């Protein structure tokens, strides 16, 4: 793990996590720029697992097909129960945004930061999906368009940090933290001088984690939940803060 840690002002932890806003501005309502997750057939209130098993008949060809599907799924690391989360099962699917904002913070030229925040509600309690690009050395996070894989990162040293925080109060006391374990962020428009932010978050899997208050290392919770976002399109103006 890198010895360089994110600025303390960006993340403070106690028994619950506290996340500070990037600036004192308010979030804009979604309006016509609605971010909609793909239809997974699971309602927002359905946060359990589907325990129903498929019915099988006596056709041996069906049994062969079922066995092949099981063999294929076992090769996927997200399908395997390693004690960190519930395999590839998603306790929560999609993220429905009510308000959001994008900020390019250039107040400190030596530590520029881009941050996107999307909230599920304009009042507490709310959930928030956050994308942060730490653009200075040693992180050198994204400053422009590109396709960025999200797997294999840790909050302690990520240059492009994507997480979801759940059950937050107005002062950012939140119940649960989910850090991205897989997925891709494709950025079509992004500039450190402002303009518009346009991006797509796809095939994202967030694992429930704890974050060490000293090292900022994110550690998956044994038996914790997964939060999945199949596709999320983002487009809005960037607020330039300098």
Distance between the termini: 31 Å
Query: What is the overall pLDDT average?
Result: 75
Estimate the helix proportion, in percent: under 10%
Task: Classify the beta-strand content into a percent band.
Answer: 35-45%
Largest sheet entry: 12 strands, mixed
Number of helices: 1
The rough form would be described as: globular
Structural class, please?
mainly beta
Number of strands: 15
Low-confidence segments, given as residue ranges, are: 1-25, 31-63, 72-86
Radius of gyration: 19 Å
The secondary-structure element order is EEEHEEEEEEEEEEEE
How many separate domains make up the residues? 1
Structural descriptors:
242 residues; mainly beta; twelve-stranded mixed β-sheet; 1 helix; disordered N terminus; three-stranded antiparallel β-sheet
Description:
With 242 residues, the chain is mainly beta. The protein has one domain. It contains one helix and 15 strands; from the N terminus they run βββαββββββββββββ. The strands form two sheets. Strands 3, 4, 5, 6, 7, 8, 9, 11, 12, 13, 14 and 15 form a twelve-stranded mixed beta sheet that branches. A three-stranded antiparallel beta sheet has the order 1-2-10, with no helix packed on it. The chain is globular, with a radius of gyration of 19 Å.
Write the topology of this structure.
Blueprint: E1 11-13, E2 17-19, E3 28-29, H1 60-74, E4 92-93, E5 99-105, E6 113-119, E7 126-134, E8 146-149, E9 160-168, E10 173-174, E11 176-189, E12 196-211, E13 218-220, E14 226-237, E15 239-241
Parallel strand pairs: 4-14, 5-15
Antiparallel strand pairs: 1-2, 2-10, 3-5, 5-6, 6-7, 7-9, 8-11, 9-11, 11-12, 12-13, 12-14
